[in-house]
Design brief:
It is built from 25 helices and eleven strands. The chain is α/β, with parallel strands linked by helices and 549 residues long.
Length: 549
Amino acid sequence: MYQVLYRKWRPRVFSDVVGQPHITSTLKNEIGTGRHSHAYLFTGSRGTGKTTCAKILAKAVNCLHPVNGDPCNECEICRGIDSGAVMDVIEIDAASNNGVDNIRDIRQEANFTPAKCKYRVYIIDEVHMLSAGAFNALLKTLEEPPEHVKFILATTEVHKLPATILSRCQRFDFRRIPSEDMIARMNYISDKEGITLDRDAAMLISRISDGGMRDALSLLDQCMGRDMHVTAQLVSSVAGLTSKDYLFRLAHALCRNDCAGAMEILDELHSSSCDMERLCSELINHYRSLMVVKTVRRAEEILVCTKEEYEQTKAQSEEYSLENILRCVDLLQEALTNMKRGVNKRIEMEMAVIKLSSPELKQNTASLAERVAALEDIVRNASLPQAHTVTHTEKEEKPKEEAKLPAEKAEAEKTEAEKTNDEARCAEQKVEAPAADADESFRQWPEVVQEIKKTNLPLWGVLDNSEAYIHGDFVLVDCRYPTFGSLIRQGSNAADVKRAVYAVTGEKKRLGIYKRADSGQTAAKENDPLDNLIEKMRSSEIKVTFNDE
């Protein structure tokens, strides 16, 4: 009958155990000197050798002819333990035998001397699954067991064990197996099995298995079922590492602050039955990969991906600053938390995408740090003009006509100013901003905002904490976000606001943008100063001159 690789090649002596020399050397020395403990606790992640070492230890303490602390695997006792014929070594799964009665049976059996072996050994796997009553029943026996009884407890979640149990055991912590040790073991097994294993394939298997030798051999077994020549492409196909192009496309759109493009990708994925909660989780992991690439020197050893995908991740990480990546992760984790609370998943994902592609909507420290980092990047990489000092002679030689502004240039600036004023006025009517004392506060505006929340959650997020005023048959919205003027013109946003006003007041109103008269500004909504500064530096409107004096 065919045996899977991880069972067929399970270590039979301590020297065969991979990646745990700090444990195997100690156990061999204890057995060789006869100073072994009555209770052991093996902890660590899955597939790192806990149960394997427990079985080797059970054979070693009972072996008739031990060899330097290892079992001989040839005597009657060793062969009987391997075949299961010797009943003095009992392996118990605490996940299915976790009650008080199961532990009481062990206590009663422990009083009887072994039938063949020197020691009766109890291997309790997943011991953290025992109930509180079972742990209490085990305490006394574990502390002072009969001389012919030994306990070996194994668990992946040592933090769930009571302190009273931990204090009664000799504890060994199993580490995740290093990649090089796993690759060496897989190459050895491949040679014995007649498998051609590429170096890249072995490296990818070790990353996917996350330090677990059992998982690595199971994946190698699956690949061997497809082809005896195991390549990285075959491993990627068997492990289900499908293409993540949509994550790269979405992250690229968010990096360029392309809100419309990101929303189109989101709609495309939703139409393809993509679960928004899973997408959010995958996008968080994608940004985690970008973060690792930007902060770790040998990131390819940490990330689980193909070589081509790693190169793609490395290239995209150059587009992001570390501050931007951290802000994206924070916003996505917040959205993921809201999704788990039962809120509409698609709306939460859309709100997250809008915030990610519009840094000015998130007025927090992370957002400001990102925008300042963008400014620093422009200053650092900008091509600055050569320093030049203007002498009095040069000033006198300048034609007088240069000091005068040409009529056509003045006309162009006037036209541009008028255009800016027009864009900042109301969404559908050109309304001059009235004086503050000529308006009546719209007291029902909070109810209108809550009504908008029912139909347009992203717009509600922008209008939350805003105010409004009544000016004739106009509702003038006073919003703190500088992009509100352009946002209200997009899609059905203006219509949604008017419908909400009608639903609350029963009156049809026209929509405008409120501007305080005492601010000393024009009717145009002033852009964010930091954004203006960045734009001016990009267009070389600001010249930086260095002077030795």
